Amino acid sequence: MSVLVSEVERLGGHVVGRFVQRRGVSGNKKGHAPGGKVNMDRPYSSRTLMSTGKVREIVAARVQTEAKAVVFTNELTARQRTVLAELLGCPVFSPGDLRAPETADSGQG
């Protein structure tokens, strides 16, 4: 994640928050209820790569911080990008979007 933060900063952006979708580690306050453990075998949402609650959490933070875009650590399909941009209300990027394109004049090779 720190490499991605460096890329955002290199491009003139500022990271105002970080979110992680964790599965299978939650329980109730006393640690007795299964919490997320029950959902470990369920696949991530192919539509958003995360739970509805996590999407809401990111939306709230984006609005509060007035973030102009959201960057994901996972590469996104075109459909995921469209759905997430609509839900989050801003452009959505993945690591491939932040990398400088290699050019023939780079002196490598």
Automatic annotation (TrEMBL):
Pfam families: GTP-bdg_N (PF13167). Residues 44-93 form the GTPase HflX N-terminal domain. InterPro entries: GTPase_HflX_N, GTPase_HflX_N_sf. Residues 23-45 are annotated as: Disordered. It comes from the Bacteria. Coiled coil: none annotated. This is GTPase HflX N-terminal domain-containing protein.
